[in-house]
Design brief:
203 residues, Arc Repressor Mutant, subunit A, Tetracycline Repressor, domain 2
């Protein structure tokens, strides 16, 4: 069940400028992924991406600092931390992780989720991107480990915290790889069910 949001905690509606910026960023990334799939990552230039998205190259770099960011850039780390911290204190860390991820996925529009899958498939198919993605994965694991440690009242370096975080990421990677092979998969449901198998883990 999706956690209920209290009236005083409701998310403020983004203004017109913020919505326009979000649409522009999404359009640039969507065209970039399309071109990377059609032409190959290495063969596609930022200038081509800009032309396809009908913006200037400088606009692309305003939203994405590097070419790799056109594939990797995502804004889920901070929302995860906020949603995770908002979970009921009586939940175990794994239960809180499961509910936080479920809540975030429920809020992602279907089109954006489809783009997320395309980006993941692209990362798997390009050795350059897969190698570069490990740094992003490590940083996100660190963030999750810190949040799990806070909830469990332990040090982030505690072996139990690290094992718990590693298990979550192992499940996420396995389900994501299955999703990459099967676009019809209900990713949110499959991930939630798989994470449910970890609920006996208690750091």
């Amino acid at each position: 069940m999706k956690p209920q949001t209290q009236p005083d905690q409701a998310k403020p509606e983004p203004g017109l400028r913020e919505r326009k910026k979000a649409r522009t960023k999404a359009a640039i990334q969507r065209e970039a992924v399309r071109l990377f799939k059609e032409q190959g990552y290495s063969a596609t230039t930022v200038e081509q991406v800009a032309e396809a998205a009908e913006v200037a190259p400088s606009t692309v770099f305003r939203y994405f600092a590097t070419k790799q960011d056109l594939v990797f850039s995502q804004d889920y780390d901070l929302p995860f931390a906020v949603v995770f911290q908002a979970q009921a204190p009586d939940l175990t860390p794994i239960q809180a992780v499961r509910r936080a991820i479920r809540s975030i996925l429920n809020d992602i529009p279907e089109q954006e989720l489809a783009l997320h899958r395309e980006r993941f498939v692209l990362i798997l198919s390009e050795s350059e991107l897969w190698g570069a993605s490990l740094g992003n994965i490590y940083r996100t694991m660190q963030l999750m480990g810190e949040e799990v440690a806070k909830r469990a009242g332990r040090d982030p370096r505690d072996p139990a915290v690290r094992a718990c975080t590693g298990a979550v990421f192992g499940v996420m990677l396995q389900v994501s790889m299955d999703w990459g092979k099967d676009p019809e998969m209900d990713f949110a449901r499959a991930l939630d069910e798989a994470l449910g198998c970890l609920e006996d883990l208690r750091p």
